[in-house]
């Protein structure tokens, strides 16, 4: 399968009070079209930094990202049209109601006028938000906001969706429902980049996982291959075992 | 590619919000206007303030209102940067960042204009017995007004990106905004300050706020004894150029967008 995204030698260096912080160190890998790619690592490993660079929120210090073989930086706006972002913080537009959040998202991504309303209604239905359509954002529960956040990210029919810790702080039953939504994206051919530190979530959802530690890629493999290689039953055990091998207990 | 339609979509959203809140805003304006008419039209003349001092002081209240609107904008922005991060959604949109920040500025200017212009015009009309507008140059006034709005938009956006949340909340009023307001030609015209103390007059010329207040006076009340309008317009235009550079620097420092 041809890669949709190629991360090439990405490094990110911050300068914090004259101290150099290397958040990402020469990270390279590729993501295949239509797969769910899990980015794992402990807090501070560089997951969010990497996903925010892929989402073009911040630039890399060095390196490049290729989208369908072309650097994303040659035409950022075109790349952004192919990208949906579901960030860790539920940053919905609280001046607009639920439906308007979707409508305006469609406008920002220059969808045809006649398509916007139909697409918004379709997503409201798919994400069981129809009864909340005229609700203000602050009337919604955390789980409902998260569903709306995903719907907003999908509004303009992106090819790639980035989820940054999508289920943090949510009840177990809501987590499961969101997993179903993420799986459904894969089934519809969308590529998913999933940043999480819930290993059960990564295990259930990801086709391949990439483990980051201190800004470096430690491994990239499918969950099944990892289980076979390490002869362990769960991703959590494998993760702990790798940490032990590397002296990071 | 296609920056203008996205810019317009963002502006449409902001105009919708302005429309939604216009009634409440105009109610606030009505309260402010009532107080201004009472104070400047009744109380101050009754307490013996000479008529020629009332108009220059009233025009400062316009600047004060823009100041407060600007502070609200800056407060919302620092809060968003610290907690909501709604700006990250905007950063992910297919829009060049210069256009995005340009939209923020235009949106603020429109909001201020919608809120403040009725107050200014109604105030000047209701206070016509104490404020003579015989020498007013309305075109120059409007130019000065737009330049002042741009100044406040840029200045408060700069503050919100440059200073971190807690510093902004605790220190920005006493250390940045109060000196800017108090050490300018707010309570006295610049010429009065200069006649009282030449060094103080020259010091006040370093404050852009002096040029905004004097610019309003000069365009509405006639050239002399206020700073020439050419100076005021030129200095504020120059300050705006400088603020664009400073804002770009502050945005890079805080957000480092692509």
Task: Describe the overall structure.
The complex is a heterodimer of chains A (249) and B (258). Chain A is globular and about 55 Å long. Chain A has helices at residues 47-54, 76-81, 98-108, 113-126, 142-154, 172-187, 199-205, 223-230, 235-245; strands at 3-16, 19-32, 36-40, 62-67, 70-71, 83-86, 160-164, 191-195, 208-213, 216-222. In chain A, a hairpin with a 2-residue loop joins strand 9 (208-213) and strand 10. By secondary structure, chain A is α/β, with parallel strands linked by helices. Chain A starts with a strand and ends with a helix. The model of chain A has no long low-confidence stretch (mean pLDDT 93). A 6-stranded mixed β-sheet of chain A has the order 6-7-8-3-9-10, sandwiched between helices. The longest helix of chain B is centred in the N-terminal third of the chain and has 44 residues, at 3-46. The mean pLDDT of chain B is 93. Chain B has one domain. Chain B has helices at 3-46, 51-84, 86-91, 97-126, 138-162, 165-182, 190-196, 198-204, 208-221, 229-254. Chain B is built from 10 helices and no strands. Chain B is globular, with a radius of gyration of 19 Å. Chain B is mainly alpha-helical. At the A-B interface, helix 2 and helix 3 of A face helix 1 and helix 3 of B.
């Amino acid at each position: 399968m041809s890669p949709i995204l190629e991360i090439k030698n990405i490094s990110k260096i911050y300068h914090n009070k004259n101290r150099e912080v290397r958040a990402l160190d020469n990270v390279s890998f590729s993501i295949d079209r239509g797969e769910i790619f899990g980015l794992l690592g402990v807090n501070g490993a560089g997951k969010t930094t990497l996903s925010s660079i892929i989402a073009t929120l911040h630039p890399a210090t060095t390196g490049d990202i290729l989208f369908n073989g072309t650097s994303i930086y040659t035409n950022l706006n075109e790349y952004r049209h192919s990208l949906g972002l579901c960030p860790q913080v539920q940053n919905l537009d609280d001046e607009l109601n639920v439906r308007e959040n979707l409508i305006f998202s469609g406008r920002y991504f220059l969808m045809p006028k006649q398509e916007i309303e139909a697409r918004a209604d379709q997503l409201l239905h798919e994400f069981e938000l129809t009864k909340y359509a005229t609700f203000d954002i602050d009337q919604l529960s955390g789980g409902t906001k998260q569903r709306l956040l995903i719907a907003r990210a999908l509004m303009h029919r992106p090819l790639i969706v980035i989820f940054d810790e999508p289920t943090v702080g949510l009840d177990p039953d809501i987590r499961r429902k969101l997993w179903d939504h993420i799986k459904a994206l894969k089934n519809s051919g969308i590529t998913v980049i999933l940043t999480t530190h819930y290993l059960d979530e990564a295990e259930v959802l990801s086709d391949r996982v990439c483990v980051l530690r201190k800004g470096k890629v430690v491994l990239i493999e499918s969950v099944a291959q990892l289980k076979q290689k390490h002869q362990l039953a769960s991703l959590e055990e494998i993760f702990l075992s790798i940490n032990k091998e590397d002296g990071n207990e | 590619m296609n920056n203008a339609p996205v810019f317009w979509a963002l502006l449409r959203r902001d105009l919708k919000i302005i429309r939604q809140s216009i009634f409440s805003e105009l109610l606030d304006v009505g309260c402010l206007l009532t107080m201004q008419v009472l104070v400047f039209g009744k109380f101050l003349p009754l307490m013996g303030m000479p008529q020629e001092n009332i108009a220059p002081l009233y025009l400062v209240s316009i600047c004060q209102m823009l100041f407060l609107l600007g502070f609200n904008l800056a407060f919302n922005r620092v809060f968003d940067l610290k907690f909501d991060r709604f700006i990250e959604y905007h950063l992910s949109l297919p829009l060049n960042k210069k256009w995005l920040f340009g939209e923020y500025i235009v949106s603020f200017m429109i909001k201020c204009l919608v809120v403040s212009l009725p107050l200014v015009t109604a105030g000047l009309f209701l206070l016509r017995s104490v404020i003579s507008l015989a020498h007013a140059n309305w075109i120059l006034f409007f130019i000065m007004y737009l330049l002042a709005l741009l100044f406040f938009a840029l200045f408060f956006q700069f503050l919100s990106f440059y200073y971190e949340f807690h510093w902004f909340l605790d220190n920005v009023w006493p250390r940045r905004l109060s000196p800017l307001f108090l050490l300018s030609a707010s309570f006295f015209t610049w010429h009065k300050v200069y006649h009282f103390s030449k060094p103080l007059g020259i010091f006040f010329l370093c404050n852009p706020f002096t040029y905004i207040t004097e610019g309003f006076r000069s365009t509405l009340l006639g050239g002399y004894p206020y700073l020439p309008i050419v100076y005021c317009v030129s200095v504020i235009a120059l300050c705006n150029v400088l603020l664009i550079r400073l804002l770009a620097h502050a945005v890079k420092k805080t957000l480092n967008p692509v």
